Amino acid sequence: MTGPQRGQRRPQRPHDGSRKSRRKPLDPARRAAFDVLQAVSQRDAYANLALPALLAERGITGRDAAFATELTYGTCRVRGLLDAIIGAAAQREPETIDPVLLDLLRLGSYQLLRTRVEPHAAVSTTVDQAAIEFDSARGGFVNGVLRTISTRDEQSWTAELAPNVDSDPIGHAAFVRAHPRWIAQAFADALGAAAGELDAVLAGDDERPRVHLAARPGALTAAELAAAVDGEVGRYSPYAVYLPGGDPGKLDAVRAGQALVQDEGSQLVARALTLAPVDGDNGRWLDLCAGPGGKTALLAALGAQTGARVTAVEQAPHRAALVAENTRGLGVEVLTADGRESGLEPGFDRVLVDAPCTGLGALRRRPEARWRRVPADIPVLAKLQRELLAAAIGLTRPGGVVLYATCSPHLAETVGVVADALRRHPVRALDTRELFAPVDALGDGPHVQLWPHRHGTDAMFAAALQVI
Ligand SMILES: C[S@@+](CC[C@H](N)C(=O)[O-])C[C@H]1O[C@@H](n2cnc3c(N)ncnc32)[C@H](O)[C@@H]1O
Fold this sequence. Notes:
By secondary structure, this protein is of the alpha/beta class. 47% of the residues lie in helices and 12% in strands. The protein has helices at 18-21, 28-43, 47-58, 62-77, 79-90, 99-114, 119-133, 136-150, 154-161, 169-176, 181-191, 198-204, 222-229, 252-255, 264-275, 294-304, 317-326, 369-372, 377-394, 415-424, 452-455; strands at residues 212-215, 232-233, 240-242, 259-261, 284-287, 309-314, 333-336, 348-354, 396-406, 427-429, 448-449, 461-467.
């Protein structure tokens, strides 16, 4: 099937004849999804920020909002899989299709392959919108592609298009679970001997994470918070509460600053730093990459119990402002600076480096993220991570501890960075698993790798290094 090439969109709805004027524009839910898809593809918007704002602005609620959410997040997550099927059905590379038309095709094919929407409705709504946005020829092109897609289900398409499971099991898993191959490979590498869990890891990225709260130490206990919010006390972190649903920002405890929204894995990382063995802790604690301040807040609340004071460094001014806001009343000194050249006086007892990273361990939180990241991001971030860790070690006194953490399991961002530090700097690795008790299944050590499918947390990595 050949189709029209890239071309001009209509500036407005056509008024040029009875046939075209019968075209119906998208209903509010599909329109919202389509607009967010375009914002994601053309302006690098984050779907999970853009969609709620747009729904509120347009007053879309209830079932329409739920449908718009399913369409938007679902289409963003499986974009690469949809593109492969669209490419096969259109018999051309998806990159050669007009980007607006491609977003429409993604929306239509998602409905055909992954929802209970009647195929006729999925096709006709998309075709009408293509004709309105462009012209009848392109409406016809969309019609042809979607009708071809609708002749088969997803399993049938993937059976034809996925790499062979025996000769390329990782490529196969990546295709079927709609991930770029390099990300599936990175997860398999990080799983090591447990690479059999790859499918569970990939499947987990399509699940919406449960909201976790942290009860602020000194303000209220997890049990009190759970009772107040009708939640469940967490499995591992003594501060964690799992919310059954609803908007956490509306909870009294969160508004009063007694609880914060924080993944249990992040709570465990902040707590691990406070549990590390440090002789004669003088209470000088540092968070070198602090924005927006979630871990700083927990560290500061824990530090307050023993008289420790936290200094927080953050390079981005708006994120430094968030650190100040999120730690108000906790005595945190916030510095807007590059952590590699903070100008701070060395001699800290405990230092957290929660490094900027690819975020591959938190893909479930950002529907489009898996398709936006590229392998070339890794060396750039790994260099920054090595430099930040080196700076942290330089700011820590002998006997003090640096906790290096990422929310990515990619080996180049995790063990690769730590191995470099162990080679170049006067540090020794502690058994970080001991600092994460009672969590089990943390890997062979000495470092810690959390996994969503095992622990229900983001895939955080942590390594505690003691300065010699
Ligand atoms: C993973 S986030 C930290 C999350 C934070 N610890 C929390 O729990 O809320 C990494 C942060 O490092 C900041 N950052 C990036 N480069 C930096 C640098 N050179 N120096 C200091 N901070 C930096 C980013 O702006 C980002 O806010």
